[in-house]
Design brief:
With 124 residues, this protein is an alpha+beta fold. It has a single domain, classed as Aspartate Aminotransferase, domain 1 (Alpha-Beta Complex), CATH 3.90.1150.30. It is 29% helix and 36% strand. It is built from three helices and eight strands, in the order ββαββββαββα. The strands form two sheets. Strands 3-4-5-6-8-7 form a six-stranded antiparallel β-sheet. β4 and β5 form a beta hairpin. α1 packs across α3. The radius of gyration is 14 Å and the shape is globular.
Length: 124
Amino acid sequence: MLSLCNAMSGTMRRMAYDEALAERIRPLVAARGEVTERKMFGGITWMLQGNMACGVLGDDLCVRLMPEDAERALSEAETRQFEMMAGRPAKGMVVVDGAAVADEDALARWVSAGADYALSLPPK
């Protein structure tokens, strides 16, 4: 599936995301409550109570966490800071390498962490 991104720079380009990874995430996040999908950041994200839980960017998983949890998560070799289009780091957002979530237990752990945080926030 393709989506458009990079509108902030005045140019538009197509960016694909890993649909197979998205299919693996859908039942995990849906088990946590009413979920909506939204195209964001050139990929796809899942929202619980209107709050972002996680998403797929290219071949990688993006997870929204409490800022303190995100800082701890960044000490893991397979993670990196999520950067907004302008190159600014997004507080509380971590990108997990797609290879690190090839295992179902690892994927479930990360999706659950994002869902826990999204559900801890006031509904939008």
